[in-house]
Write a structure and sequence with these properties.
Blueprint (H helix, E strand, L loop, with lengths): L5 H6 L3 E3 L8 H9 L5 E2 L3 E2 H5 L3 H6 L9 E6 L3 H13 L4 E6 L4 H4 L11 H14 L5 E5 L10 H10 L4 E5 L13 H10 L4 E4 L5 H11 L3 E4 L1 H5 L3 H7 L6 H19 L3 H18 L26 H6 L4 H12 L27
Parallel strand pairs: 1-9, 2-4, 3-4, 4-5, 5-6, 6-7, 7-8, 8-9
The structure holds flavin mononucleotide (FMN).
Length: 364
């Protein structure tokens, strides 16, 4: 019997906004929703910290007004604690509950969380089984990597264990824990998972332009795809996926960044405390926004995995927006916070060496 479950309907053809520590903050999700996102995920939320009633953790599970399909991602190793947390987040409005099996950060993996948990497929199965009993109706999804390292690519085993435990969908980030972002995502491996499990699979890795989304989805035969850095660099990627590629000019981009400032101030408050917070987020987001580059003049496409040389800039504003150095990011953050005009001539020259690529180590 074919069973077109609701979660399959939700994920079919979807471009899911990935769970991202810091990046999937509530106002940024709202910006992405305004730009066409329909399925969004929270930042990684540690089940035990919810149990400890930590306010900062409860902030992560808050659904935005009108958010149509909001998934909360949980990290934990104890089946009962994960089931309790799943029930809690469902009661607070989560439409999906996702299990983090990919976080590479030592602080978490040392405690057996994230990518370390994926080394224990039987435990994964038990956690999912117990979570399924904890929720009333919210589907349970799991987000995996390909494995711990190239010698332990156990993705099929983990995906099957999760599906056997009752997972309603599997998200596959096509890299191992040790690879971090050094290699390109392996969409053939994602396709193997899609062929191996009876539940919908969402493929994830390196998607930046609409044609890549379509090609990857078809190649891997997965239900939907997920974008992380693509959404941080281009929050309009969701609209673009539906309507086709369009170069978004510098003025239009600045207008979107200003919109984020408004949403963030609404969320964190337009007082001294809130503004300090918002500036820190804006400054952080600018570190991704500066990576935007349009299709090249020769018709080829920039790649997610290589920083595009800034030579493409067609105006002094575009050149400024493409700078990733501290002086430029501070200047832009201050201008955006002050709701002031951005005059490239006023921008300070780069001080010292260019910044490191942001966030490779922030990732959960
Ligand atoms: C800033 C940042 C934070 C992330 N935080 C999380 C997280 O909390 N949970 C998670 O499962 N993955 C997290 N990731 C990984 C992404 O969800 C995604 O799997 C990965 O970036 C690959 O997708 P991409 O190539 O589209 O960026 C994070 C990634 C980034 C860039």
């Amino acid at each position: 019997m074919t069973d077109p479950t609701p979660v399959r309907d939700v994920l079919s053809g979807a471009v899911v906004m990935a769970p991202m520590t810091k990046g999937s903050n509530l106002p940024y999700r709202r910006l992405c929703l305004e730009l066409g996102a329909r399925v969004t995920m929270s930042e990684m939320t540690v089940a035990r910290r919810l149990k400890q009633k930590r306010r900062s953790e409860f902030a992560l599970i808050r659904k935005a007004p009108g958010e149509p399909c909001f998934g909360v991602q949980l990290a934990g190793t104890n089946p009962d604690e994960m089931a309790w947390a799943a029930a809690l987040v469902e009661s607070r409005g989560a439409d999906l509950v996702d299990v983090n099996l990919g976080c590479p950060i030592d602080h978490f993996t040392r405690k057996g969380l994230g990518a370390a948990l994926a080394r224990q497929p039987r435990r994964v199965q038990r956690i999912v089984e117990t979570m399924k009993r904890g929720v009333q109706r919210a589907p349970i999804t799991v987000k995996i990597r390909l494995g711990w390292n190239d010698d332990m690519r156990n993705y099929l085993e983990v995906a099957r264990a999760a599906a056997d435990g009752g997972a309603d969908a599997i998200v596959v980030h096509g890299r191992t824990r040790n690879a971090r972002y050094r290699q390109s995502a392996d969409w053939d491996a994602i396709g193997e998972v899609a062929a191996a499990v009876p539940v919908p699979v969402v493929g994830n890795g390196d998607l930046l332009f609409p044609h890549e989304i379509e090609t990857a989805r078809r190649r891997a035969g997965c239900a939907g795809v997920m974008v992380a850095r693509g959404a941080l660099i281009k929050p309009w990627i969701f609209r673009e996926a539906a309507e086709g590629y369009r170069d978004v000019g510098a003025d239009e981009r600045v207008a979107l960044y200003r919109r984020y400032v408004d949403l963030a101030l609404e969320h964190w408050g337009d007082d001294e405390h809130g503004r300090t917070r918002v500036r820190a987020f804006v400054r952080w987001h600018l570190g991704f926004w500066c990576r935007y580059a349009p299709r090249r003049a020769d018709g080829s496409w920039p790649s997610m995995q290589a920083r595009e040389p800034a030579g493409f800039a067609r105006s002094s504003l575009e050149a400024l927006l493409a700078r990733g150095d501290d002086a430029a990011l501070d200047f832009l953050a201050d201008r955006l916070m002050a709701q002031a005009e951005i005059a490239p001539a006023d921008a300070p020259p780069p001080a010292g060496a260019a910044r490191e690529e942001p966030a490779a180590e922030v990732e959960g």
